[in-house]
Amino acid sequence: MKRLFSGIQPSGELHLGNYLGAVSNWVKLQESYHSFICIVDYHAITQSYDRKDMRTRVLHMAADLMACGIDPERSVLFVQSRVPEHTELCWIFNAVAQYGDLSRMTQFKDKAARQAENINVGLFDYPVLQSADILLYKAQVVPVGEDQVQHVEFTRRIARGFNRRWGKLFPEPDALLSSTPRLLGLDGQAKMSKSMGNTIVLATPEKQIRKQLSRAATDPARVKREDPGDPDNCNVFTLHKFFSNEERLGWVRDGCTSAGIGCVDCKRALADSMLDQLSDYRRRREELLAEPEKVERILAEGAERASAVARQTMEQVRDKLGLWR
Ligand code: TRP
Q1: What's the CA-to-centroid distance between 248 and ligand 1, angstroms?
Q2: Any catalytic annotation for residue 111?
């Protein structure tokens, strides 16, 4: 089986953009790849956070991932800071990474603009740590959203640079995009993301999900209730395609194009479909959070399984570099 690696920041609760853009894909791919799924807390510290929340954020993210279907028997689910080889390999890659390449990373430029008072070196080095995450496990496949493609390209350059300088050790991994690499938010304007406030946190209570969906932007050309709408130009219909069955999709398409139903009806139906699909997730999440020791044990086991691979790679790396032994 080929190896797969992906990471997610413990940035609060899992939202619809994470789920549709990445996590649902990981759940499918774990059937056919030897998967490593990592909660990347060392990446998270490059942005400001409240230290008293960090443990809860990690715990909730682990529970969220499992509730979505990440199976810890199949996938190695672990926390980055529990496997110190990630930062060790990052240092070695720092001797390969080019300043010019890093300064062209769009995510770095965006974040630097957003936190101008704290452009720390970790923020600049972020893609190098990400390369270490991936290559420590010699992963060939990295399923991510579109915003991470540049970082995977960078990882390929790191692998090439290392192999050229010290001898072949690492594969050049490929990014694998989901069918919706770039999902629009409920505002119908920007990419769906937590920072834009245009997404839905999966664990939100039912009533609030309904309310948030009721405000979602629809086909901008459909102004009045009597106007027929165009589902192919409607972000709500895009979401229906994920959550609704064929029958309901037909009902929406016909109703919308003939003005038989209004946007309010359509969004109510979307809420029904979504809550229906998410009901297993919500129940499992509750169960897991009721037993945090169980989640902690799973993460500890994951770290052990990851460490076994990580230690082996680092032995090979030190050997390639000709370091003291
Ligand atoms: N940078 C990724 C994000 O913000 C998270 C991440 C860290 C990651 N290391 C990774 C993703 C390795 C894929 C592979 O979404």
Answers
A1: 35
A2: yes
